[in-house]
Automatic annotation (TrEMBL):
It comes from the Bacteria. The keyword Transferase applies. Keywords: Nucleotidyltransferase, Transferase. It comes from Candidatus Sodalis pierantonii str. SOPE. This is DNA polymerase III theta subunit. Its EC number is 2.7.7.7. The gene is holE. InterPro entries: DNA_pol_III_theta_bac (IPR009052), PolIII_theta_sf (IPR036745).
Length: 75
């Protein structure tokens, strides 16, 4: 496996970028930063918008398992 993402084919790079955007949306929502998920979704390639929505849902669910910074004790 290579770590150089530039050597990957274009569809794979697009998918990685969409995944990165989805994780950024979930992160910003978690920390109450201003973000409009619908706007970010419109910025993604049309064929990957369904993938974007599923990844945002995944990251939103995953963030429920983490505490926020600064550290908050679990109840």
């Amino acid at each position: 496996m290579t770590y150089n993402l530039a050597t990957l084919d274009e569809p794979t790079r697009d998918k990685i970028n969409v995944d990165l955007a989805a994780s950024a949306v979930a992160f910003k929502e978690r920390y109450n930063m201003s973000v409009v998920a619908e706007q970010v979704e419109r910025d993604q390639p049309a064929q990957l918008r369904d993938y974007f929505r599923t990844r945002v849902t995944f990251y939103r669910q995953a963030s429920l398992n983490f505490s926020r910074l600064p550290y908050e004790a679990r109840k």
